[in-house]
Amino acid sequence: MSETNIKSHRDLIVWQKAMNLAQAVYDLTGTFPKEEIYGLTNQTGVALFQFQLIR
Length: 55
Fold this sequence. Notes:
Shape: elongated
Number of strands: 0
Mean pLDDT: 80
Structural class: mainly alpha
């Protein structure tokens, strides 16, 4: 069994992948039409923020 040097949650691959996903979602919502700034973009941002709180 190999020894790992995990010192924080940021060293976990699952955390790194979740942050990559979060960045991809933020980037995607930046391409939404301006009419959606308070609709779908807002809902997506709130959902992503809540996801980050429970990580």
